[in-house]
Amino acid sequence: MNHSTLNVPTCEVDPLLVSGVARGEPAACEALAAALHDHEGRCLSSGPGYLVLSGLGQLDEEAARRFVLAVSAMLGWPMPQDFDGEMIREVRDRGVTLESGATVRYSDTRQGGNLHTDGMHRPGEIPAYFTLHCVRQAASGGALVLVHVDDLVRELCLEPDVVAALREPVHFDTRDGRPDRPATVPRSILEFDGGSPRITYLREYVESAHRRPGIAPLSRLQVRAMDRLDALLAREDLRTYRRLEPGQLIVINNRTIVHGRTAFENEPGEGRNRLLFRTWIAAAR
Ligand SMILES: [Fe+2]
């Protein structure tokens, strides 16, 4: 059993509480915030690193947007997800692939793999948590893949050269494309915060940053360290799969969980494509 399968809770939220929070009613918001904070210590900041809320299927898309922003504000500070200040990102297939352009984002594809953490390419603070609210699920595939950093570090404990290489700063491509914005942001893949491991990763963005002119190529040890990390991320015994149903929202600790998804195929027809609402949350201060 890996770390992420331990004591994984799915919280069924009372329908009256759901609609009250979506309408911004103070008593409903206080009640849900109290329940979330109760779970936060056991499920997010420690434990499996994620928490699923279910019972949200009654919400239409506008109410779901209000709900996911309200939940995000209960856990910290909702963060913009691009330079234009977008607070809720629609995660859906936009008909592109990561290979089709330097500014394509993983969340706009229906590709699987590429396990990563969110927001690593944005200068400034990395989201502490992120949420995904499932509005519509794919016809097939589209399950979340989760790997806990504690399991990775445990496997790497006899490989200090790999750990040291992962602690060295590398560049992440910002995928922005505008000349007045930074092209890369330097970060370490692995950090220890008071002894607790924190991870930041998306290999494709590291490699594209280090292909840019003026950025030193990755060292052989850095490449080997990422190869080793990728091998661990591919190990089935370290992975947890979680396929969200419509009306479920997952909160994920973005500093301890590396995530991805399985490739997916959409239902044919207009307005039937897989759609998730995503928020990023800065740590409460
Ligand atoms: Fe992601």
Task: Tell me what the structure shows.
This protein has 285 residues and is of the alpha+beta class. It has a single domain, classed as Clavaminate synthase-like (Double-stranded beta-helix), CATH 3.60.130.10. A hairpin with a 2-residue loop joins strand 11 and strand 12. Helix 1 packs across helix 2, helix 1 crosses helix 3 and helix 2 crosses helix 3. The structure holds fe (ii) ion. The site of fe (ii) ion has 4 residues, from loops.
**What name does CATH use for the topology?**
Double-stranded beta-helix
What is the name of the CATH class?
Alpha Beta
Radius of gyration: 19 Å
Order of helices and strands: EHHEHEEEEEEHHEEEEHHEEEEE
Poorly predicted regions? none
Q: What would you say the CATH architecture is?
A: 4-Layer Sandwich
Task: Briefly say what this structure is.
The protein contains 7 helices and 17 strands.
What's the SSE blueprint?
Layout: E1 10-12, H1 15-22, H2 26-44, E2 50-54, H3 61-75, E3 76-79, E4 89-91, E5 113-116, E6 129-136, E7 140-141, E8 144-148, H4 149-155, H5 160-167, E9 169-173, E10 184-188, E11 190-193, E12 196-199, H6 203-210, H7 220-233, E13 240-242, E14 249-253, E15 257-261, E16 264-265, E17 275-283
Parallel strand pairs: 1-2
Antiparallel strand pairs: 2-14, 3-17, 4-17, 5-15, 6-14, 6-17, 7-16, 8-13, 8-15, 9-10, 11-12
This protein binds fe (ii) ion.
